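Appendix B. One record, verbatim.
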Amino acid sequence: MSEQQRLSEAVHLILDKEGSTAAAYPPDWENRGRVEYFYRRNTILVRTKDKDRVGRTLRSILGPSVQRTDRSEGAADDDDSLPVIAGIVKFEWSDHDLGTPEVLELLDAEFGVGTATPNHGLSLCPNSGHPCPATEPAVVPTRSYSPVPPVSDGICCGTHGWDGDGVVVGVVDGGLIEEAPRMWPWMAGVTGDPEIPIDAATGLIKPYAGHGTFVAGCVRCVAPRAAVQVERAEELAGLAYEDEIIARMVDVLNCGADVIVCEFDGITRLHLPMLTFSTFYDDILRHVNVVVVAPAGNDTSRLPTYPAAYSWVVGVGALSSNGDQRADFSNYGGWVDVYAPGVDLVNAYAVGDYTTIHEHPQQTRHFDGIANWSGTSFSAPLVAGMIAARMSATGENAPQASNALLRFALSQAIPGTGPALLPHQVCGAVMRDG
C-alpha cells in the first residue's frame, strides 16, 4: 500500500467516525499528502489571563453563539463539561463560516501567536504526517506465548528488589481488556478502565484496540510487581483531545502514580507547546516527584511531537530488533531523550479476528490474546518500567531514578542514534555510579 493510501485510510477512520468532532489541517490534506495537526472543530483554548480580551474579540467575529467554559473555584471535580486544569478556558461556537484555523489566524494577528491554540487531537500511533502505527498487530508464530522482552526476575547486580514493588505506574491509553490480567501471569493485578475490543457490527477486533493492554504488559515485563493502572481517554479511532488526555493524567496522579505513561502524542499547530500540558506542568507536576514518559512517534522524522518533546517529559524513540541502531520508523533528533527496544515486541492483546487496514492485500488474522507489535508506543513503557524497577531497588523517587537511567543511557549512546537503554540494564546506572 502506498503512503498516500495509508494516510487517507487512517485519517478517514477518524473523520468519518459517527459523531466525530475532529478535523484535520490543512483542509486539503488529501491533496498535499500530509496532515499538519488534528483538532476539535469550533473550539479554542486560552489561558485565564487572556479570556476577557479574547472573548470580546471572538464575539465580535462570531456573534453570540460563542460559549466559554472554565474551572472556577468550587467547581465540581466530576463536571466533565469544564476544562480539568484551572487556568485554562475553553471557547466553543456553533457552525460558522470561520472554522478554528481561520479564527486562530485572526487571533494571532491581534494578540500574538500562541495566545490561543486549538484543542489538539493526539494519536495512540503518533506520526508527524498521519496517525498510522509502525506495524499492525501480527500473530505470534509459536504457541509458547512468552512475552518479549521476557519478564524480569527482579534480580540485578546480584541483588533482589528490581521489580517495581511499591511503585505505581499510570498508563493513559485506550483502556484495558478485562480478560488479559486473568489470561497472562505477568498481567495479574493490572487494573484500569475497561475496553471492549470487538466491534459489535463486524465481530472483528477494532483498529487500535488492545493498545493499552499491550502497553501495560510492557511495563510489567520490566517491573513485574509494579501497580499498573490504565486510564481510558475517550478516543476516535486512536485519537483523543488534549483536554481529555490531561483529565486522565490528573486521574492517575490522584491515584498515586509515580510514573505516568502518556501514550497519546502528535504534531501541534506551528510546533508550539500545548496550553493544557504546559499548565498541567506549571501548576501541578513541577511540585511533585512524578515522571511523565511518552513515545516519540513512528514517522522517521526530526519534527518534534508533543508531549514527548517537552523538556519535562522523557521522550522515547525505538531501537531496532538487535538493539544496536535506531528502528527505521522511529522519530529522532535532539528532543528525543532515550531509545529503547521497539521492534517485534510480544505482549497481551485481544482475542478474536482482526482485518488489517494498512496492509494490502488485506489479511484477516486470528489472535489468542497475545500479539507481536512494533512502535515507539511500546518503547516508552519499557523505559517507564525501568524507572519503576530502579525506584523499588534503590529507594529513589521517580525523577532521581529517571535521571540516573538517562545518565547511564548517555554513557552508552549509539553513534548516529543517541542515548540507549535495554531492559536488562535496569541496574546499569548503579554499577556505573559505583
